[in-house]
Design goal:
This protein is α+β, with helices and mostly antiparallel strands. Helices cover 40% and strands 21% of the residues. The longest helix has 17 residues, at 129-145. It starts with 5 loop residues before the first helix and ends in a 5-residue tail after the last helix.
Length: 163
């Protein structure tokens, strides 16, 4: 999957620049539930660090700015890293805790924050339907393991999840 040490180099660049981050999205769900295959790693950084991270990473990697993310990739790697630019995710960094992701210990958003991010994604009608269906599956994976979180999911989102 990664013959370029992309992830190691990216994480080292963030650490050297002292840019705090945490894993969000499907990879974060994998830290709390039965893992499923993913070739992307979504992370959140403090909003004050997004531009600095983008500039820093563009020195070594292919960086592309999209509407709600900064996408980072490298030749020789199938992994894609998306830095979330939605300010709602910025506070997740402070509540992150270490967990295993992609075989290494990384700061991962708290399970409540991971769930919130998945709810936001599932509610976003501009996302492709296939992505929203995956988000609903991720919500289901989380509330099966953490049933106490079910009350945090809006009823209109719960209604979309097959019983």
């Amino acid at each position: 999957m990664d013959h370029s040490d992309f992830l190691d180099r990216l994480l080292e660049a963030l650490a050297t620049a002292k840019i705090g981050y945490c894993v969000i999205g499907g990879a974060a769900v994998n830290a709390y539930a039965e893992p499923v295959v993913t070739l992307d790693l979504d992370i959140a950084v403090a909003m004050t660090d997004v531009e600095r991270a983008e500039e820093l990473l563009s020195r070594e990697f292919k960086v592309r700015r999209l509407a709600h993310s900064v996408n980072v990739s490298a030749a020789g790697s199938n992994l894609s890293v998306q830095i979330q630019t939605d300010p709602r995710y910025a506070s997740f960094v402070d509540r992150a805790r270490p967990a295993e992701v992609l075989g290494i210990q990384l700061p991962v958003a708290a399970v409540e924050d991971v769930l919130q991010g998945k709810v936001w994604a599932a509610e976003d009608s501009s996302r492709r339907r296939s992505k929203r269906v995956k988000d609903l599956g991720d919500i289901l994976r989380l509330i099966e393991i953490y049933p106490e979180l079910r009350d945090r999911v809006p009823s209109e989102v719960l209604a979309q999840i097959p019983q």
